[in-house]
Write a structure and sequence with these properties.
The protein is built from nine helices and five strands; from the N terminus they run H-H-H-E-E-H-H-E-H-H-E-E-H-H.
């Protein structure tokens, strides 16, 4: 039987029907698993992967995926104001986009200044050509050396290794924060760019 943080049984908090079912038709175990899933997604502050959730819920990955999908549908049906989002290889709870602007006074910390067009272009070069050295970035896109530092400070870019070239310059790549901010599960979800489109990006 699953135990709650206060030492009580999670199952004991579930309203029982004579058929030992919850009002939603779930068994007490299913109700408790769903309750714990929602609490974990709310408390984590970051996406939780299927394997991590499987360990927390003591379920196999397939059962966790099914539970996440059912939970997401239930939030949509009741109009909860937030939803389950699959991002960066995991799942998290996010506010519905049309409500975010109205809630902005309550959200903290204040949003960072918008990245300049030049910084976004450098970020695109790194995203599509990683791992890449600063010299390669500047040769392809130009811009000041401080642009990469700005992207590092925003936690969008990080050092991922060293090149085997002379001097072993640092190699840069994107971070999990990059995936989060752009709503991507993985780099494979980056939209494809034709040679012409990428050439236009480099020329600005």
């Amino acid at each position: 039987m699953t135990r709650a943080a206060d030492g009580g049984s999670l199952d004991s908090r579930v309203p029982q029907t004579p058929e030992n079912q919850t009002p939603t038709g779930q068994t007490p175990e299913e109700y408790a698993a769903r309750e714990l899933l929602g609490a974990a997604l709310l408390a984590s502050g970051r996406p939780l992967g299927i394997k991590e959730l499987a360990g927390l819920l003591a379920l196999d990955p397939a059962a966790v995926l099914e539970l996440v999908e059912r939970y997401a549908r239930s939030l949509e049906m009741v109009g909860a104001g937030f939803r389950v989002e699959g991002v960066a290889g995991g799942y998290r709870l996010v506010i519905e986009p049309d409500l975010a602007a109205r809630l902005s006074p309550l959200l903290a910390p204040p949003p960072l200044p918008t990245l300049s067009s030049a910084a976004l272009e450098v970020l695109a070069v790194i995203a599509y050509r990683q791992p890449i050295t600063r010299a390669e970035i500047e040769a392809m896109r130009g811009g000041s050396p401080g642009t990469v530092l700005t992207l590092q400070e925003r936690e969008l870019v990080k050092v991922v290794g060293k090149s085997s070239a002379v001097g072993q310059p640092l190699l840069y790549g994107t971070t999990e924060r990059f995936l989060l901010d752009f709503g991507l599960n993985s780099l494979e979800e980056l939209p494809e760019l034709s040679g012409q489109e990428f050439g236009d990006l480099l020329r600005g």
